[in-house]
Amino acid sequence: MFNSVDLTQLARYPFTTEAKEWVKNEKVNTADILSDAVYERARMRGIARVHQALKRGIVDEVPLLGEADCIMELFSYPIARMIVAAVESEYLIRRYALAEAKKAYTALKNEPPEFISILAGEFGITTDHRGIHFTDYLKYAPTWDTKWKLVNRNLQHGYVVLQHHEIARLIQEAIREKIQRELANLFAPPEVKRIFRDDIVAMRSSVASKDRRPKIEEVNEEYFPPCIKSLAAAARAGTNIPHVGRFTLVTFLHAIGMETDDILKLFSASPDFNMEKTRYQIEHITGKASGTTYAVPRCDTILTWGLCYPDQLCKTVRHPLFYYRRRSRR
Ligand code: SF4
Fold first, then answer.
1. Which fold is adopted by the domain 7-209?
2. Strand, helix or coil for residue 160
3. CB of 327 shorter than 6 A to ligand 1
4. What is the pTM for the complete model shown?
5. How confident is the model at residue 216 (pLDDT cuts 50, 70, 90)?
6. If you average pLDDT over residues 248-252, what whole number do you get?
7. Cα–Cα distance between 13 and 74 in angstroms, integer?
8. Is 192 close to ligand 1, i.e. is its CB under 6 Å away?
9. Could you give the CA distance from residue 236 to residue 325 in angstroms, rounded to a whole number?
10. DSSP notation for 109-135
11. CB 269 within 8 A of CB 235
């Protein structure tokens, strides 16, 4: 895929088949990578990758000034993956996959179109000079966002016309999915837990604090305002909810502390329920996958969407969260 083994590019995109092949062909065994002094730099960088993902949500780029830098960078990726697997947290898997994908996006924006096309091919994405084929577009675009909806896009002979950075953004999503899928099936060798014990303990404690959210059983729906009650009931019944309704429901449930998996359960009755797609939409709205946490819409906005069914208490509030808090306090 890359120009006659361009180590810099392999190091920049270590999740590609070609980069993994390169590491495999080096025939270094796992025990050496984990303990030999030669790979100390790679181990440090591997730990840093995971810490950066946890703390900042993106893996930093490092200067790749020569062959040694590239080799260490290449080996640091499988080390980071083993550490993530050893922490045994779905939250970390998702966060790390996104952080690596964001790092790749930063680099991809500066790559020539030919390279972008080749990399897109790795994920089965068909591109041409206009953009991306609409079937691939629908697979990876966050179409719940008005800006990405297909109806708001210019379609030419089956291709969605996109700018360079937009194609890179969709590839970012394909990368995130691939890394996340692979990590979900990865088991770390026992020695990883021993060698990186302190870091793994610190990561587990950091992840635990992020996961401390009430379960759906702990949320009292009695206190929901009528608009949210109605949306939650529609979601449970599998009724089709308009985009703005789903958005309102997700922002509200997240704001009162519900975790993604529990929000997912609500939508699972929907006739067109797609676990991965719905999770992606929820994580975008709640900021896990986008870095932007969307606020719960105010009552006047919900009213214009035709989703407001006010009761007596509604006369004294201007925001669904105020309603919930007031009822909870009583
Ligand atoms: S007034 Fe506000 S809280 Fe009450 S139903 Fe309407 S949007 Fe919901």
1. Transcription Elongation Factor S-II; Chain A (1.20.930)
2. strand
3. no
4. 0.67
5. very low
6. 94
7. 9
8. no
9. 23
10. TTS-HHHHHHHHHHTT--B-SSEEEHH
11. yes
7-59 pLDDT per residue, tens? 999 999 999 999 999 999 999 989 999 999 999 999 999 999 999 999 999 99
Specify whether the CB–CB gap between 74 and 22 falls below 8 A. Answer: yes
End-to-end CA distance of the chain: 63
Q: Which atom of ligand 1 is nearest to the CA of 308?
A: 6
Bridge partners (DSSP) of residue 155 are 160
For ligand 1, what atom is nearest to the CA of residue 311?
4
Say how many Å lie between the CA of residue 316 and the centre of ligand 1: 10
pLDDT the model gives residue 267:
87
pLDDT band at 318 (very low <50, low <70, confident <90, very high): confident
The predicted-structure confidence for 154-172, as pLDDT tens digits, reads as follows 999 999 999 999 999 999 9
Q: Is the CB of 174 under 6 A from ligand 1?
A: no
- Picking from 66-70, 132-136, 142-146, which range would have the lowest pLDDT averaged per residue? 142-146
Which residues are within 8 A (CB) of 300 and not within 5 positions of it... i.e. 6 or more apart?
318
DSSP, collapsed to helix, strand or coil, labels residue 60 as coil
Cβ of 320 closer than 6 Å to ligand 1, yes or no, is yes
Residue nearest to atom 8 of ligand 1 (CA): 227
